[in-house]
Amino acid sequence: DQQVKQNSPSLSVQEGRISILNCDYTNSMFDYFLWYKKYPAEGPTFLISISSIKDKNEDGRFTVFLNKSAKHLSLHIVPSQPGDSAVYFCAASASGGSYIPTFGRGTSLIVHP
Amino acid sequence: DAGITQSPRHKVTETGTPVTLRCHQTENHRYMYWYRQDPGHGLRLIHYSYGVKDTDKGEVSDGYSVSRSKTEDFLLTLESATSSQTSVYFCAIADKGGSYNEQFFGPGTRLTVL
User: Fold this and answer.
1) Is the dihedral of CA A48, B98, B105, A23 positive or negative?
2) A3-42 pLDDT per residue, tens
3) Which of A83, A99, B2, B103 is deepest in the core (most CB within 10 A)?
4) Residue B40: its chain A contacts at CB < 8 A?
């Protein structure tokens, strides 16, 4: 049973436009959410995070939105660049649990020049 | 970049042979993790460690064992490799186990079991 779901395996966007990657979760105990970015033949790297006490966190071109009532978060990339082409993983963890994050299956983003 | 190395980076082995993958860190981080990444499955936790000689199982631990005799090294062993263990293996570290803490990942080991 997937507790963190990324329902879109892939997303294709034109350079300069907005990319929106979505993530849904089922465990109401999750209170911290992270996005990781992964290029081929490399390990994932941390991108941005958000605590459940917030509904938005911004870092440059990257913004994460959290809708707790819907158990939904999204990562917005504006404007998208070809270098953003990668696999994006959503992860969630619960401070009252083992702190081990649960990962989604990833969304492959392709940004076309 | 966090100092994490994995060795070997690539390995081809035969079914039934033992395999050990090594993760080495220079950050003195307490927490270390082994994940596998497979198409359609994302990152799945195999085992993790919260200190020297302190380890616990993840969601896909069957067929794998780990050891951590020093802070800097975390070994993953496949006692008798099977084709289903063909995967890309990532080690990760974290300085705290708290929820508000990101992990740093190694470059990965691509393992092929024939």
Assistant:
1) negative
2) 999 999 999 999 999 999 999 999 998 999 999 999 999 9
3) B103
4) 9, 105
Is A7's Cβ below 8 Å from some Cβ in B?
Answer: no
Nearest residue, CB atoms, A43 vs list B44, B90, B98: B90
- Distance from C-alpha of B60 to C-alpha of B57, rounded to nearest angstrom: 8
* Cβ separation B108–A42 shorter than 8 A: yes
Do A99 and A1 form a contact (C-beta atoms < 8 A)? no
Residue A2's identity, in one-letter code, is: Q
Q: Residue B81 burial by CB count (10 A; 0-12/13-18/19+): exposed, middle or buried?
A: buried
Residue A21: how many other CB atoms lie within 10 Å: 22
Q: How distant is the Cα of A92 from the closest Cα of chain B, in angstroms?
A: 9
Question: How far is Cα B36 from Cα B59, in angstroms, rounded to an integer?
Answer: 11
A26 touches chain B (CB under 8 A): no
Phi, psi of B18 (to 5 degrees): -80, 145
Per-residue pLDDT of chain B (114 residues; tens, 9 = 90+): 569 999 999 999 999 999 999 999 999 998 899 999 998 888 999 999 988 999 999 999 999 999 999 999 999 999 999 999 999 999 999 876 555 678 999 999 999 999
